[in-house]
Specification:
The structure holds two protein chains of two kinds. Helices cover about 35% and strands about 5% of the residues of chain A. Chain A contains four helices and two strands, in the order αααββα. The chains are: A mainly alpha, B alpha/beta.
Protein backbone atom coordinates (compact mmCIF):
# COMPACT_ATOMS: atom_id res chain seq x y z
CA UNK A 1 0.00 0.00 0.00
CA UNK A 2 1.22 3.45 -0.83
CA UNK A 3 2.62 5.36 2.11
CA UNK A 4 1.04 8.79 2.11
CA UNK A 5 2.79 9.83 5.29
CA UNK A 6 2.27 13.43 6.25
CA UNK A 7 4.82 16.18 5.86
CA UNK A 8 5.50 18.64 8.65
CA UNK A 9 4.45 22.22 8.10
CA UNK A 10 6.79 24.47 6.10
CA UNK A 11 7.77 26.63 9.06
CA UNK A 12 8.66 23.63 11.20
CA UNK A 13 10.68 22.03 8.45
CA UNK A 14 12.57 25.26 7.86
CA UNK A 15 13.29 25.58 11.56
CA UNK A 16 14.43 21.98 11.79
CA UNK A 17 16.85 22.49 8.94
CA UNK A 18 18.20 25.58 10.61
CA UNK A 19 19.37 23.62 13.63
CA UNK A 20 22.37 22.38 11.66
CA UNK A 21 24.22 25.60 12.48
CA UNK A 22 26.17 25.73 9.28
CA UNK A 23 29.13 28.09 9.57
CA UNK A 24 30.80 30.15 6.89
CA UNK A 25 33.94 28.06 7.36
CA UNK A 26 32.20 24.69 7.05
CA UNK A 27 30.30 25.88 3.99
CA UNK A 28 33.45 27.12 2.25
CA UNK A 29 35.25 23.88 3.14
CA UNK A 30 32.39 21.97 1.53
CA UNK A 31 32.48 24.09 -1.62
CA UNK A 32 36.27 23.77 -1.78
CA UNK A 33 35.87 20.00 -1.75
CA UNK A 34 33.68 20.03 -4.87
CA UNK A 35 35.35 18.57 -7.94
CA UNK A 36 36.55 21.15 -10.47
CA UNK A 37 34.74 20.67 -13.77
CA UNK A 38 36.22 22.62 -16.71
CA UNK A 39 33.57 24.72 -18.42
CA UNK A 40 31.27 24.47 -15.41
CA UNK A 41 33.28 25.52 -12.39
CA UNK A 42 34.82 28.95 -11.86
CA UNK A 43 38.61 28.82 -11.51
CA UNK A 44 40.27 29.79 -8.27
CA UNK A 45 41.00 33.39 -9.29
CA UNK A 46 37.48 34.14 -10.49
CA UNK A 47 36.03 32.44 -7.42
CA UNK A 48 38.15 34.59 -5.14
CA UNK A 49 37.29 37.84 -6.99
CA UNK A 50 33.58 37.08 -6.86
CA UNK A 51 33.65 36.44 -3.14
CA UNK A 52 35.61 39.65 -2.63
CA UNK A 53 32.82 41.56 -4.40
CA UNK A 54 30.19 39.82 -2.30
CA UNK A 55 32.02 40.60 0.92
CA UNK A 56 31.34 44.32 0.35
CA UNK A 57 27.76 43.93 -0.89
CA UNK A 58 24.79 45.18 1.11
CA UNK A 59 22.83 42.09 0.09
CA UNK A 60 25.22 39.70 1.86
CA UNK A 61 23.48 38.30 4.92
CA UNK A 62 25.39 36.79 7.79
CA UNK A 63 28.53 36.72 5.65
CA UNK A 64 27.15 33.69 3.86
CA UNK A 65 24.26 34.17 1.54
CA UNK A 66 22.72 36.55 -0.91
CA UNK A 67 19.44 38.22 -0.05
CA UNK A 68 18.47 38.47 -3.72
CA UNK A 69 18.72 34.77 -4.54
CA UNK A 70 18.78 32.83 -1.23
CA UNK A 71 21.94 31.10 -2.49
CA UNK A 72 25.14 30.75 -0.53
CA UNK A 73 27.56 33.07 -2.27
CA UNK A 74 30.46 30.62 -2.00
CA UNK A 75 28.37 28.01 -3.83
CA UNK A 76 27.06 30.39 -6.47
CA UNK A 77 30.50 31.91 -7.05
CA UNK A 78 31.80 28.46 -7.87
CA UNK A 79 29.48 28.11 -10.86
CA UNK A 80 31.12 29.59 -13.94
CA UNK A 81 27.87 30.56 -15.65
CA UNK A 82 26.28 32.17 -12.62
CA UNK A 83 25.59 35.87 -12.51
CA UNK A 84 25.23 38.30 -9.66
CA UNK A 85 21.51 38.91 -9.06
CA UNK A 86 21.88 42.43 -7.69
CA UNK A 87 19.03 44.42 -9.30
CA UNK A 88 20.12 46.38 -12.37
CA UNK A 89 23.76 45.86 -11.45
CA UNK A 90 25.46 42.52 -12.06
CA UNK A 91 28.52 43.08 -9.89
CA UNK A 92 30.33 40.04 -11.31
CA UNK A 93 29.87 41.11 -14.93
CA UNK A 94 33.30 42.66 -15.48
CA UNK A 95 35.36 40.15 -13.52
CA UNK B 1 -7.21 4.01 -28.64
CA UNK B 2 -9.40 7.08 -28.33
CA UNK B 3 -10.25 8.17 -24.81
CA UNK B 4 -13.65 9.60 -24.06
CA UNK B 5 -14.85 12.50 -21.92
CA UNK B 6 -18.52 13.21 -21.34
CA UNK B 7 -19.70 16.55 -19.98
CA UNK B 8 -23.32 16.48 -18.86
CA UNK B 9 -24.93 19.81 -19.77
CA UNK B 10 -28.09 18.93 -17.83
CA UNK B 11 -26.37 18.60 -14.46
CA UNK B 12 -25.51 22.08 -13.29
CA UNK B 13 -24.76 21.31 -9.68
CA UNK B 14 -23.14 24.30 -7.98
CA UNK B 15 -20.90 27.29 -8.45
CA UNK B 16 -17.13 26.87 -8.42
CA UNK B 17 -15.90 29.28 -5.79
CA UNK B 18 -13.21 31.55 -7.23
CA UNK B 19 -11.36 31.11 -3.96
CA UNK B 20 -10.41 27.56 -4.94
CA UNK B 21 -7.71 29.40 -6.90
CA UNK B 22 -6.37 31.17 -3.81
CA UNK B 23 -2.75 31.62 -2.75
CA UNK B 24 -0.72 31.63 0.43
CA UNK B 25 2.02 34.01 1.59
CA UNK B 26 3.90 33.14 4.76
CA UNK B 27 6.81 34.93 6.41
CA UNK B 28 9.16 32.22 5.26
CA UNK B 29 12.19 32.34 2.98
CA UNK B 30 11.67 34.96 0.26
CA UNK B 31 7.90 34.72 -0.09
CA UNK B 32 7.14 38.06 1.53
CA UNK B 33 10.54 39.76 1.61
CA UNK B 34 11.99 39.69 -1.91
CA UNK B 35 8.76 38.20 -3.21
CA UNK B 36 5.72 40.40 -2.73
CA UNK B 37 7.52 43.07 -0.73
CA UNK B 38 10.82 44.78 -1.53
CA UNK B 39 10.27 48.08 0.29
CA UNK B 40 9.86 51.54 -1.14
CA UNK B 41 13.62 52.22 -1.35
CA UNK B 42 14.40 49.09 -3.39
CA UNK B 43 16.05 49.38 -6.83
CA UNK B 44 13.55 46.71 -7.92
CA UNK B 45 10.54 48.38 -9.56
CA UNK B 46 7.80 48.62 -6.96
CA UNK B 47 4.56 50.32 -6.08
CA UNK B 48 4.80 51.65 -2.53
CA UNK B 49 7.14 48.78 -1.68
CA UNK B 50 5.14 46.03 -3.44
CA UNK B 51 7.10 44.34 -6.20
CA UNK B 52 5.42 45.42 -9.45
CA UNK B 53 6.18 42.37 -11.61
CA UNK B 54 4.97 39.94 -8.95
CA UNK B 55 1.76 41.87 -8.37
CA UNK B 56 1.09 41.98 -12.12
CA UNK B 57 1.73 38.23 -12.44
CA UNK B 58 -0.90 37.44 -9.82
CA UNK B 59 -3.39 39.93 -11.21
CA UNK B 60 -3.10 38.22 -14.57
CA UNK B 61 -4.25 34.90 -13.11
CA UNK B 62 -7.06 36.64 -11.21
CA UNK B 63 -5.85 35.83 -7.70
CA UNK B 64 -9.08 35.65 -5.68
CA UNK B 65 -7.74 35.42 -2.11
CA UNK B 66 -4.47 35.49 -0.20
CA UNK B 67 -3.74 33.78 3.11
CA UNK B 68 -1.29 35.46 5.54
CA UNK B 69 0.87 35.51 7.75
CA UNK B 70 1.11 31.70 7.99
CA UNK B 71 1.14 28.77 8.32
CA UNK B 72 2.79 28.03 11.56
CA UNK B 73 4.32 31.48 11.55
CA UNK B 74 0.77 32.62 12.36
CA UNK B 75 0.86 30.83 15.69
CA UNK B 76 3.92 32.73 16.80
CA UNK B 77 3.02 36.03 15.15
CA UNK B 78 2.07 38.93 17.37
CA UNK B 79 0.36 41.44 15.17
CA UNK B 80 1.27 44.49 17.22
CA UNK B 81 4.93 43.86 16.28
CA UNK B 82 4.02 44.78 12.69
CA UNK B 83 2.22 48.10 13.02
CA UNK B 84 3.35 51.68 13.54
CA UNK B 85 6.44 53.46 12.20
CA UNK B 86 8.92 51.08 10.56
CA UNK B 87 11.79 52.23 12.75
CA UNK B 88 9.97 51.23 15.91
CA UNK B 89 8.83 47.80 14.76
CA UNK B 90 10.37 44.81 16.46
CA UNK B 91 13.41 43.38 14.69
CA UNK B 92 14.38 39.74 15.07
CA UNK B 93 17.56 38.18 13.80
CA UNK B 94 17.92 34.50 13.04
CA UNK B 95 21.48 33.81 14.09
CA UNK B 96 21.40 30.13 13.15
CA UNK B 97 21.48 30.66 9.43
CA UNK B 98 23.23 33.77 8.30
CA UNK B 99 21.68 36.53 10.37
CA UNK B 100 18.42 36.79 8.46
CA UNK B 101 16.44 39.78 9.67
CA UNK B 102 12.66 39.82 10.21
CA UNK B 103 12.11 43.52 10.66
CA UNK B 104 8.32 43.38 10.58
CA UNK B 105 8.29 45.93 7.76
CA UNK B 106 5.45 43.87 6.28
CA UNK B 107 2.56 43.88 8.74
CA UNK B 108 -1.19 44.30 8.86
CA UNK B 109 -1.34 47.58 6.90
CA UNK B 110 1.03 46.25 4.24
CA UNK B 111 -0.97 43.02 3.88
CA UNK B 112 -4.28 44.78 3.35
CA UNK B 113 -2.57 47.21 0.99
CA UNK B 114 -1.28 44.24 -1.00
CA UNK B 115 -4.76 42.70 -1.20
CA UNK B 116 -6.15 46.01 -2.42
CA UNK B 117 -3.43 46.19 -5.07
CA UNK B 118 -4.08 42.59 -6.14
CA UNK B 119 -7.85 43.02 -6.00
CA UNK B 120 -8.20 39.90 -3.87
CA UNK B 121 -9.88 38.91 -0.62
CA UNK B 122 -7.76 38.85 2.55
CA UNK B 123 -7.53 35.64 4.58
CA UNK B 124 -5.86 36.36 7.93
CA UNK B 125 -4.77 33.46 10.11
CA UNK B 126 -4.91 34.22 13.84
CA UNK B 127 -2.67 33.02 16.63
CA UNK B 128 -4.11 30.38 18.97
CA UNK B 129 -0.92 28.45 19.73
CA UNK B 130 0.97 31.24 21.51
CA UNK B 131 -1.54 34.07 21.49
CA UNK B 132 -4.40 35.08 23.71
CA UNK B 133 -8.09 35.52 23.16
CA UNK B 134 -7.60 39.23 23.83
CA UNK B 135 -4.83 39.52 21.24
CA UNK B 136 -6.94 37.84 18.58
CA UNK B 137 -10.01 39.82 19.50
CA UNK B 138 -8.14 43.11 19.35
CA UNK B 139 -6.63 42.26 15.97
CA UNK B 140 -10.09 41.75 14.52
CA UNK B 141 -11.22 44.99 16.18
CA UNK B 142 -8.18 46.82 14.77
CA UNK B 143 -8.92 45.57 11.27
CA UNK B 144 -12.69 45.88 11.09
CA UNK B 145 -14.17 48.23 13.70
CA UNK B 146 -15.49 51.49 12.25
CA UNK B 147 -16.59 53.15 15.49
CA UNK B 148 -14.57 54.76 18.23
CA UNK B 149 -12.49 52.30 20.25
CA UNK B 150 -8.91 51.93 21.45
CA UNK B 151 -8.05 49.68 18.51
CA UNK B 152 -9.73 51.81 15.85
CA UNK B 153 -7.98 54.88 17.26
CA UNK B 154 -4.66 53.03 17.09
CA UNK B 155 -5.37 52.10 13.48
CA UNK B 156 -6.16 55.72 12.62
CA UNK B 157 -3.02 56.83 14.41
CA UNK B 158 -1.09 54.48 12.12
CA UNK B 159 -2.55 56.10 9.04
CA UNK B 160 -5.74 54.20 8.31
CA UNK B 161 -8.99 55.77 9.49
CA UNK B 162 -11.38 53.46 7.65
CA UNK B 163 -11.62 49.79 8.60
CA UNK B 164 -10.77 47.09 6.12
CA UNK B 165 -13.06 44.32 4.96
CA UNK B 166 -11.89 41.02 6.44
CA UNK B 167 -13.31 38.17 4.43
CA UNK B 168 -11.68 35.12 6.01
CA UNK B 169 -10.24 34.54 9.45
CA UNK B 170 -8.47 31.34 10.53
CA UNK B 171 -8.58 30.45 14.22
CA UNK B 172 -5.18 28.83 14.66
CA UNK B 173 -3.14 26.80 12.22
CA UNK B 174 -2.11 23.15 12.42
CA UNK B 175 -3.13 23.03 16.05
CA UNK B 176 -2.49 19.26 15.93
CA UNK B 177 1.20 20.04 15.32
CA UNK B 178 3.29 23.19 15.47
CA UNK B 179 0.23 25.22 16.40
CA UNK B 180 0.08 23.73 19.89
CA UNK B 181 0.26 19.92 19.60
CA UNK B 182 -3.35 19.71 20.73
CA UNK B 183 -5.75 16.83 20.87
CA UNK B 184 -8.85 17.38 18.74
CA UNK B 185 -11.11 17.54 21.80
CA UNK B 186 -8.97 20.30 23.31
CA UNK B 187 -8.75 22.26 20.08
CA UNK B 188 -12.51 22.02 19.56
CA UNK B 189 -13.08 23.61 22.96
CA UNK B 190 -10.47 26.28 22.32
CA UNK B 191 -11.95 26.99 18.92
CA UNK B 192 -15.37 27.55 20.46
CA UNK B 193 -13.83 29.97 22.95
CA UNK B 194 -11.57 31.95 20.58
CA UNK B 195 -14.10 32.28 17.78
CA UNK B 196 -16.58 33.82 20.22
CA UNK B 197 -14.40 36.91 20.30
CA UNK B 198 -13.88 37.12 16.57
CA UNK B 199 -16.59 39.78 16.61
CA UNK B 200 -18.49 40.88 13.60
CA UNK B 201 -18.54 44.65 13.94
CA UNK B 202 -20.06 45.67 10.64
CA UNK B 203 -22.48 44.17 8.19
CA UNK B 204 -19.75 42.23 6.39
CA UNK B 205 -19.62 38.69 7.65
CA UNK B 206 -16.26 37.28 8.70
CA UNK B 207 -15.99 33.70 7.47
CA UNK B 208 -14.46 31.75 10.37
CA UNK B 209 -12.17 28.84 9.60
CA UNK B 210 -11.28 26.17 12.15
CA UNK B 211 -8.10 24.16 12.06
CA UNK B 212 -8.83 20.91 10.29
CA UNK B 213 -6.93 17.69 9.79
CA UNK B 214 -3.46 16.88 8.62
CA UNK B 215 -4.00 14.87 5.47
CA UNK B 216 -5.79 11.60 6.36
CA UNK B 217 -6.43 12.24 10.06
CA UNK B 218 -10.10 11.29 9.83
CA UNK B 219 -10.53 11.34 13.61
CA UNK B 220 -9.56 15.02 13.85
CA UNK B 221 -12.30 15.95 11.40
CA UNK B 222 -14.86 13.84 13.22
CA UNK B 223 -14.11 15.21 16.69
CA UNK B 224 -13.82 18.86 15.68
CA UNK B 225 -16.95 18.76 13.54
CA UNK B 226 -18.89 17.00 16.27
CA UNK B 227 -17.91 19.44 19.00
CA UNK B 228 -17.49 22.72 17.15
CA UNK B 229 -19.00 22.33 13.69
CA UNK B 230 -21.91 24.64 14.44
CA UNK B 231 -19.53 27.52 15.24
CA UNK B 232 -17.46 27.44 12.05
CA UNK B 233 -17.92 28.35 8.41
CA UNK B 234 -14.95 26.39 7.17
CA UNK B 235 -12.62 23.58 8.20
CA UNK B 236 -9.08 23.54 6.84
CA UNK B 237 -7.18 20.59 5.35
CA UNK B 238 -3.43 20.40 4.63
CA UNK B 239 -1.84 17.91 2.29
CA UNK B 240 1.52 18.01 0.50
CA UNK B 241 2.68 15.82 -2.37
CA UNK B 242 5.99 14.18 -1.49
CA UNK B 243 8.09 11.97 -3.76
CA UNK B 244 9.35 9.40 -3.04
CA UNK B 245 9.26 9.94 0.74
CA UNK B 246 9.77 12.72 3.25
CA UNK B 247 13.26 11.51 4.16
CA UNK B 248 14.44 11.01 0.57
CA UNK B 249 13.08 13.94 -1.35
CA UNK B 250 14.82 14.90 -4.60
CA UNK B 251 15.12 18.32 -6.16
CA UNK B 252 12.20 19.34 -8.37
CA UNK B 253 13.99 18.56 -11.64
CA UNK B 254 15.58 15.28 -10.56
CA UNK B 255 13.16 12.52 -11.48
CA UNK B 256 12.48 9.82 -14.05
CA UNK B 257 9.36 7.95 -15.09
CA UNK B 258 8.99 6.29 -11.66
CA UNK B 259 9.19 9.63 -9.87
CA UNK B 260 6.72 11.13 -12.28
CA UNK B 261 4.06 8.53 -11.60
CA UNK B 262 4.71 8.35 -7.86
CA UNK B 263 4.14 12.10 -7.59
CA UNK B 264 0.97 12.13 -9.69
CA UNK B 265 -0.38 9.13 -7.80
CA UNK B 266 0.25 10.89 -4.52
CA UNK B 267 -1.42 14.05 -5.82
CA UNK B 268 -4.44 12.00 -6.91
CA UNK B 269 -4.85 10.94 -3.29
CA UNK B 270 -6.46 14.36 -2.82
CA UNK B 271 -9.62 12.84 -4.33
CA UNK B 272 -9.89 10.33 -1.48
CA UNK B 273 -9.00 12.97 1.10
CA UNK B 274 -11.71 15.35 -0.04
CA UNK B 275 -14.32 12.64 -0.46
CA UNK B 276 -13.76 10.99 2.92
CA UNK B 277 -13.47 14.23 4.89
CA UNK B 278 -16.64 15.37 3.13
CA UNK B 279 -18.39 12.17 4.23
CA UNK B 280 -17.33 12.72 7.84
CA UNK B 281 -18.36 16.37 7.76
CA UNK B 282 -21.72 15.36 6.32
CA UNK B 283 -22.48 13.33 9.45
CA UNK B 284 -22.79 16.62 11.28
CA UNK B 285 -23.41 18.98 8.37
CA UNK B 286 -25.44 17.16 5.71
CA UNK B 287 -26.34 20.35 3.88
CA UNK B 288 -22.69 21.27 3.43
CA UNK B 289 -22.92 24.64 5.16
CA UNK B 290 -19.35 24.23 6.42
CA UNK B 291 -16.77 24.49 3.66
CA UNK B 292 -13.65 22.38 3.37
CA UNK B 293 -10.74 24.81 2.95
CA UNK B 294 -7.60 23.19 1.55
CA UNK B 295 -5.37 26.06 2.58
CA UNK B 296 -2.01 24.32 2.14
CA UNK B 297 -1.35 21.99 -0.79
CA UNK B 298 1.27 21.37 -3.44
CA UNK B 299 4.54 19.57 -4.18
CA UNK B 300 7.35 19.57 -1.67
CA UNK B 301 10.84 18.86 -3.08
CA UNK B 302 14.37 19.14 -1.77
CA UNK B 303 15.64 22.71 -2.06
CA UNK B 304 17.67 23.83 -5.04
CA UNK B 305 21.41 23.12 -4.61
CA UNK B 306 23.32 25.91 -2.91
CA UNK B 307 20.27 27.63 -1.50
CA UNK B 308 19.48 28.14 2.15
CA UNK B 309 17.63 24.95 3.16
CA UNK B 310 15.51 26.97 5.55
CA UNK B 311 14.08 28.97 2.63
CA UNK B 312 12.36 25.99 0.94
CA UNK B 313 13.20 27.35 -2.50
CA UNK B 314 12.50 24.84 -5.28
CA UNK B 315 12.19 24.73 -9.06
CA UNK B 316 8.96 23.85 -10.78
CA UNK B 317 8.52 21.55 -13.79
CA UNK B 318 5.75 20.06 -15.88
CA UNK B 319 5.39 17.47 -13.11
CA UNK B 320 4.37 20.27 -10.75
CA UNK B 321 2.00 21.54 -13.45
CA UNK B 322 0.32 18.13 -13.66
CA UNK B 323 0.01 17.97 -9.88
CA UNK B 324 -1.63 21.40 -9.96
CA UNK B 325 -3.95 20.46 -12.82
CA UNK B 326 -5.04 17.15 -11.28
CA UNK B 327 -5.59 18.78 -7.88
CA UNK B 328 -7.55 21.75 -9.21
CA UNK B 329 -9.77 19.39 -11.24
CA UNK B 330 -10.47 17.49 -8.01
CA UNK B 331 -11.35 20.71 -6.18
CA UNK B 332 -13.65 21.83 -9.00
CA UNK B 333 -15.45 18.48 -9.00
CA UNK B 334 -16.03 18.79 -5.23
CA UNK B 335 -16.99 22.44 -5.34
CA UNK B 336 -20.08 21.75 -3.25
CA UNK B 337 -17.75 21.20 -0.27
CA UNK B 338 -14.37 22.67 -1.26
CA UNK B 339 -14.87 26.41 -1.38
CA UNK B 340 -11.34 27.72 -0.91
CA UNK B 341 -7.85 26.36 -1.48
CA UNK B 342 -4.45 28.01 -1.20
CA UNK B 343 -1.44 26.51 -2.92
CA UNK B 344 1.76 26.66 -0.88
CA UNK B 345 3.22 29.15 -1.48
CA UNK B 346 2.82 32.14 -3.78
CA UNK B 347 6.44 33.21 -4.39
CA UNK B 348 9.84 31.51 -3.93
CA UNK B 349 8.63 28.89 -1.43
CA UNK B 350 7.61 25.28 -2.28
CA UNK B 351 5.34 24.94 -5.35
CA UNK B 352 5.38 28.58 -6.35
CA UNK B 353 3.69 30.05 -9.39
CA UNK B 354 6.31 32.80 -9.34
CA UNK B 355 10.07 32.76 -8.66
CA UNK B 356 12.25 35.84 -8.28
CA UNK B 357 15.97 36.49 -8.23
CA UNK B 358 17.17 40.07 -7.97
CA UNK B 359 15.03 42.03 -10.39
CA UNK B 360 14.25 38.99 -12.55
CA UNK B 361 11.07 36.93 -12.46
CA UNK B 362 10.11 33.49 -13.69
CA UNK B 363 6.55 32.36 -14.28
CA UNK B 364 6.56 28.65 -13.54
CA UNK B 365 4.50 25.91 -15.21
CA UNK B 366 2.26 26.06 -12.13
CA UNK B 367 1.53 29.73 -12.89
CA UNK B 368 0.43 28.72 -16.38
CA UNK B 369 -1.93 26.10 -14.96
CA UNK B 370 -3.62 28.76 -12.83
CA UNK B 371 -3.89 30.88 -15.97
CA UNK B 372 -5.45 28.02 -17.95
CA UNK B 373 -7.95 27.28 -15.16
CA UNK B 374 -8.96 30.84 -14.29
CA UNK B 375 -12.17 30.78 -16.35
CA UNK B 376 -13.58 28.18 -13.96
CA UNK B 377 -13.71 30.87 -11.27
CA UNK B 378 -17.38 31.56 -10.55
CA UNK B 379 -18.55 29.15 -13.25
CA UNK B 380 -21.35 26.62 -12.80
CA UNK B 381 -19.90 23.16 -12.29
CA UNK B 382 -20.91 20.60 -14.89
CA UNK B 383 -20.63 16.92 -14.15
CA UNK B 384 -17.90 15.38 -16.26
CA UNK B 385 -16.44 11.90 -16.57
CA UNK B 386 -13.42 10.45 -18.36
CA UNK B 387 -13.60 6.88 -19.64
CA UNK B 388 -9.93 6.13 -20.07
CA UNK B 389 -7.15 3.62 -19.54
CA UNK B 390 -4.66 3.79 -16.71
CA UNK B 391 -0.99 4.60 -16.94
CA UNK B 392 1.93 4.39 -14.56
CA UNK B 393 4.05 1.88 -12.75
CA UNK B 394 3.06 -1.11 -10.66
CA UNK B 395 1.26 0.05 -7.54
CA UNK B 396 1.06 3.64 -8.77
CA UNK B 397 -1.44 3.43 -11.61
CA UNK B 398 -3.51 6.49 -12.31
CA UNK B 399 -6.06 7.37 -15.00
CA UNK B 400 -4.54 8.89 -18.11
CA UNK B 401 -6.95 11.74 -17.89
CA UNK B 402 -8.42 13.99 -15.24
CA UNK B 403 -11.10 16.49 -16.16
CA UNK B 404 -13.43 19.16 -14.83
CA UNK B 405 -15.94 21.37 -16.60
CA UNK B 406 -17.92 24.50 -15.92
CA UNK B 407 -20.20 26.86 -17.75
CA UNK B 408 -20.55 30.62 -17.90
CA UNK B 409 -23.32 31.91 -20.13
CA UNK B 410 -22.82 30.15 -23.47
CA UNK B 411 -19.23 29.02 -22.99
CA UNK B 412 -18.19 25.68 -21.52
CA UNK B 413 -14.70 25.53 -20.02
CA UNK B 414 -13.09 22.10 -19.86
CA UNK B 415 -9.66 21.48 -18.30
CA UNK B 416 -7.94 18.19 -19.01
CA UNK B 417 -4.67 16.67 -17.85
CA UNK B 418 -2.80 13.92 -19.65
CA UNK B 419 -0.70 12.14 -17.04
CA UNK B 420 1.10 9.90 -19.52
CA UNK B 421 4.86 10.37 -19.26
CA UNK B 422 5.55 9.80 -22.94
CA UNK B 423 2.41 9.24 -25.02
CA UNK B 424 -0.16 11.57 -26.48
CA UNK B 425 -3.85 10.73 -26.12
CA UNK B 426 -6.59 11.09 -28.72
CA UNK B 427 -9.69 12.33 -26.93
CA UNK B 428 -13.33 12.87 -27.87
CA UNK B 429 -15.16 15.35 -25.64
CA UNK B 430 -18.95 15.02 -25.86
CA UNK B 431 -21.50 17.42 -24.43
CA UNK B 432 -24.40 15.24 -23.31
CA UNK B 433 -27.90 16.76 -23.27
CA UNK B 434 -26.82 19.78 -25.27
CA UNK B 435 -29.89 21.67 -26.45
CA UNK B 436 -28.46 22.97 -29.72
CA UNK B 437 -25.08 22.28 -31.23
CA UNK B 438 -21.50 23.34 -30.67
CA UNK B 439 -20.83 26.71 -32.29
CA UNK B 440 -17.07 26.79 -32.12
CA UNK B 441 -14.13 25.55 -30.10
CA UNK B 442 -10.67 26.73 -29.11
CA UNK B 443 -7.95 24.99 -27.15
CA UNK B 444 -4.59 25.79 -25.64
CA UNK B 445 -2.10 23.62 -23.91
CA UNK B 446 0.88 23.53 -21.58
CA UNK B 447 3.32 20.72 -22.24
CA UNK B 448 7.03 21.38 -22.60
CA UNK B 449 9.62 19.30 -24.42
CA UNK B 450 10.09 16.87 -21.56
CA UNK B 451 8.30 16.03 -18.30
CA UNK B 452 11.07 17.88 -16.44
CA UNK B 453 10.82 21.00 -18.62
CA UNK B 454 10.91 24.20 -16.58
CA UNK B 455 11.55 27.89 -16.88
CA UNK B 456 14.72 29.49 -15.58
CA UNK B 457 15.96 33.03 -15.15
CA UNK B 458 18.24 32.51 -18.17
CA UNK B 459 15.46 30.89 -20.25
CA UNK B 460 12.13 32.04 -18.84
CA UNK B 461 9.93 30.92 -21.76
CA UNK B 462 10.82 27.27 -22.26
CA UNK B 463 7.42 26.19 -20.96
CA UNK B 464 4.63 28.33 -22.29
CA UNK B 465 1.00 28.12 -23.26
CA UNK B 466 0.54 27.11 -26.91
CA UNK B 467 -2.54 26.78 -29.14
CA UNK B 468 -3.84 23.25 -29.71
CA UNK B 469 -5.89 21.98 -32.63
CA UNK B 470 -9.42 20.94 -31.67
CA UNK B 471 -12.14 20.18 -34.21
CA UNK B 472 -15.88 19.80 -33.97
CA UNK B 473 -16.59 16.28 -35.29
CA UNK B 474 -20.31 16.10 -34.52
CA UNK B 475 -22.88 18.57 -33.26
CA UNK B 476 -22.05 17.62 -29.69
CA UNK B 477 -18.47 16.35 -29.92
CA UNK B 478 -15.00 17.86 -30.10
CA UNK B 479 -11.91 15.84 -30.94
CA UNK B 480 -8.34 16.69 -30.05
CA UNK B 481 -4.99 15.12 -29.29
CA UNK B 482 -3.50 15.78 -25.89
CA UNK B 483 0.31 15.96 -25.95
CA UNK B 484 2.16 13.80 -23.42
CA UNK B 485 2.57 15.24 -19.91
CA UNK B 486 0.22 18.12 -20.61
CA UNK B 487 -2.52 20.34 -19.22
CA UNK B 488 -5.14 21.53 -21.71
CA UNK B 489 -7.84 24.18 -21.69
CA UNK B 490 -10.83 23.78 -23.97
CA UNK B 491 -13.40 26.50 -24.58
CA UNK B 492 -16.58 25.31 -26.27
CA UNK B 493 -19.19 27.85 -27.34
CA UNK B 494 -22.71 26.40 -27.37
Amino acid sequence: MTDFSCAPCPSCAAREMQTGRLTKESLEAHVASLVYVPGFSADADLYKMRLEVCSHCVALQGGMFCAYSATYVSYRAKMLGASCPFPQNDKWKDL
Amino acid sequence: MKESIVVDMSECSCTISPDIYGHFAEHLGRCIYGGFWVGKASPIPNTDGYRTDVVEAFKEIHIPSLRWPGGCFADEYHWQDGIGPYETRKRMINTHWGGIVEDNSFGTHEFFGLCELLGCKPYVNGNVGSGTVQEMSEWVEYITFSGDSPMSRLRAQNGRAEPWKLDYFGVGNESWGCGGNMLPEHYASLYRQYQTYVRQYGSDKIFKIACGPNSSDWNWTDVVMKNAGQYMDGLSLHHYTIEPSWENKHTATDFGEDGWYRALSHASFMEELVRRHDEIMSKYDPHKRVALIVDEWGMWHAVEPGTNPGFLYQQNTMRDALVAGITLNIFNNHADRVRMANIAQAVNVLQSPVLTEGNRIVLTPTWYVFKLFKDHQGGTLLKSRAACAFCGIEGQKIPHISVSASKKEAVVTVTITNADYASSQDVAVSLAHISGSIQNVSASCLSGDTPAAHNTFASPDLVNETPLVAKVSMKDTVELTLPPHSVTLLHIAV
